[in-house]
Each structure stands twice: as structure tokens, then as C-alpha cells.
Design goal:
It is built from ten helices and six strands; from the N terminus they run H-H-H-E-H-E-H-E-H-H-H-E-H-E-E-H. By secondary structure, the protein is of the alpha/beta class. It starts with a helix and ends in an 11-residue tail after the last helix.
């Protein structure tokens, strides 16, 4: 916990403008990447499953398989609803983490199902080699090293950050070698509608470019994160669906921050439920 605290403190120290730490960005906690933690994680999952099964047994769910079946169907319904809404209002999404084959596989599914248009950042040859088992033919691939947009983005990024000590050389280096920065510049300049990142980058490395380039959503006072939690056969929430915040970014909120987090969370739940209750 201390290490994470220090990492996030360093991030916000770098972004010292109050306006730059209010972004309404949904972030996801980093997966457990250290193999040494897997055993502990599995033990925790087993214990938590048992707790949930014991808790809901009185409502007729008697075993782990039944619990997982109900939960899987409940999650599938939510995801299907999200997909339908995405198709009805199709957007262009940038995926900067093309070094991760899981991202390329996900891109192929999104394109196949017509959920969004996709921009991939990286070397086209390398991406196609990694994605040889998937169909990403409908994706647009942009290589920062060869793109005609790069020089324009370098100048714009420099102008955005020159008061923070940014130089033209620094701007170019960051845009060429950290694809998240290039992705955010695509959104900033309306070549795309959004970015999805975090598969192989830490929370701070995902959040920093967005805060520095995209800034904050008007009216939002604090950066916060949330988890979507599902509980089968539950009368509370929205048919057992809850949004828990903040679960990974703001670790010690005071009353004012809690109020800001509650407001952002209610807005994030909009569209999922007509009635939003904060507790």
C-alpha cells in the first residue's frame, strides 16, 4: 500500500495545477502481475466465493457452480446492453497497447461485432504479425514514427505543457515512445472519441497522459475510479448491480472528496438505472 501511495503522490505532484487533477476518468485497478501473488490471490478468491455462497444460500443458491452460472448470465446481460448502446452510437476508440496480444484479440471482436471503429497505435508490420490469428483488417493503424500527424501533435503538446517545463524535444520523445500520449492527442484533436488502456500499463501511466492532455471534465472536482459489482438474486441496488467507488485511486478521501466521488459515480451509473441512489 505504501508503494502505491507514493506512486500516486508522485503522479499528482507532477500535475500540480488543481484543474489537472479533476478528471472524470474511469480507471481499472492493475491486475496482479507478480506470479508470487497468484497463490495468495487464488486463496482469497476461494475464501470470498465461500463467503458469497454462504451468504446467498438462504435465497436458494446452494453451490458454487450455480452461483457462478447466475453471475455469468447477469454480467452477460449487462455487457450485451452496453454493446447495444455502443452500436447505436458508434464511436472511434484508440487502443495504444498493441504490444499486448490480448488487446489485438479484443480489437478483432469489437470490429467483428460492429461495436466501435478502432485505431491501433504502433508499427503496422509488428501489429499484423502479433495479430496473425485475428482479423483486424478494418482497424486503422497509425505509426507515430511515420504519421503525418506527429509533427502537428508535437507542437500542440509542447504548447499545452511548455509552462510545466516541456520542450519540443521532450514532446517528440514522449509522443514517439509512449503510445498513450499519442492516443490522447488523437482524442484531444477529435480524430477519435476515446482511449482504452490499462491492460499492461500501471494506473499512473494510464492516467498521467489523460490528465496532462485531455484535462478534466467540466464540473468534476476529483479524479475517481469505480468497480461494477454484481450480486445474484439481490433485492438491493439495480437488481443486484452496484457501483463501488473509489476503489483504487483516492485512498483517504475527506468528506468533500467523498461527496465529489459520489456525484461522479452517480453520473457514471446514468443510463444503467433510472433511479440512482448513493449510500
Amino acid at each position: 500500500m505504501k508503494k502505491k501511495d507514493e506512486e500516486m503522490n508522485d503522479l499528482f505532484d507532477e500535475i500540480d495545477d488543481e484543474e489537472e487533477i479533476k478528471e472524470d476518468i474511469v480507471i481499472e485497478n492493475d491486475d496482479i502481475k507478480d506470479n508470487n501473488d497468484k497463490q495468495l490471490n487464488n486463496q482469497y478468491t476461494t475464501t470470498y466465493d465461500k463467503f458469497l455462497i454462504d451468504s446467498v444460500a438462504v435465497d436458494g443458491i446452494q453451490n458454487k457452480n450455480e452461483y457462478h452460472y447466475i453471475l455469468k448470465n447477469q454480467m452477460a446481460n449487462i455487457i450485451d446492453d452496453i454493446k447495444l448502446k455502443a452500436k447505436e452510437n458508434k464511436k472511434t476508440i484508440v487502443l495504444p497497447e498493441t504490444m499486448d496480444v490480448r488487446v489485438l484479440e479484443a480489437a478483432s471482436v469489437v470490429l467483428r461485432d460492429g461495436i466501435a471503429d478502432i485505431i491501433l497505435i504502433g508499427d503496422e508490420k509488428d501489429i499484423k504479425v502479433k495479430a496473425s490469428s485475428f482479423d483486424i483488417s478494418k482497424a486503422k493503424i497509425i505509426n507515430p514514427f511515420t504519421s503525418e500527424l506527429t509533427d502537428e501533435f508535437v507542437k500542440l503538446f509542447y504548447e499545452l505543457r511548455k509552462d510545466k517545463g516541456m520542450t519540443m524535444d521532450m514532446a517528440k520523445e514522449m509522443l514517439l515512445h509512449d503510445y498513450m500520449y499519442f492516443a490522447c492527442m488523437l482524442v484531444k484533436n477529435e480524430y477519435a472519441d476515446g482511449v482504452v488502456s490499462g491492460a499492461c500499463h500501471s494506473t499512473s501511466n494510464t492516467l498521467r497522459p489523460a490528465l496532462q492532455i485531455l484535462k478534466t471534465k467540466p464540473g468534476v472536482k476529483l479524479v475517481s475510479s469505480f468497480f461494477l459489482m454484481l450480486v445474484p438474486d439481490c433485492e438491493y441496488g439495480d437488481d443486484g448491480t452496484f457501483l463501488f467507488a473509489d476503489c483504487g485511486l483516492e485512498q483517504n478521501p475527506d468528506s468533500e472528496k467523498l461527496a465529489a466521488i459520489a456525484g461522479s459515480s452517480a453520473s457514471s451509473f446514468e443510463g444503467r438505472s433510472e433511479e440512482r441512489r448513493v449510500g
